[in-house]
Structures are given as C-alpha cells and as structure tokens.
Design goal:
The chain has 89 residues and is mainly α. 75% of the residues lie in helices and 0% in strands. The chain has a domain at 26-87. Helix 2 (30-54) packs antiparallel against helix 3 (60-87). The radius of gyration is 22 Å and the shape is elongated. The termini are far apart. The mean pLDDT is 84.
Length: 89
Amino acid sequence: MPLYFHPHASLTLDVGLLLVFLGPGVPLNILLFVFLSVLVLVPCTVLSVYYLMLQSFVLLLEFILNAVLLCFYSLEMLLGIMSISAFSR
C-alpha cells in the first residue's frame, strides 16, 4: 500500500504544470507582448476620458470609479514603458 495516493485527474494537471514551469523563465518575445499591451492601453484611456469628461450625465460614483481606472491605466503605462526600456537593452 503506497503512503501517498495521487488522483489521476490531479496527476495530469500536476504534470502539465510541471512541464509549463520547466520551460524558459522569461520568454524571449515578452517585449512584443508588453508593447502590444501599451498600444492597446491608449484607446482604452481615450474612451475612459471620453466617458469621464465628455458624456452628458455621469454619476458621482462613475466619476470616482473612472478616476481610479485612469490612475491604474497611468500606472500600467508607466510600468509598461519601464519594462520596454529594461527588456530592450
């Protein structure tokens, strides 16, 4: 009788995760994904500013949530640009 019984469904998941994590640590094409993320962030920011400033009826809660969203967008843009500059060296 084995000391530890591992279910087959969980075993396949564990082996799959093991194969994923045994790959390269940082993919070589990560610069492309970060660049695309920053590129997609621009229209999202424009639409958020439109919703915040140019729409006729905006509730106070929507204004606060949109301001928080713009703060997160600016943080994502800053981190994305820093990542692009760090990975491009």
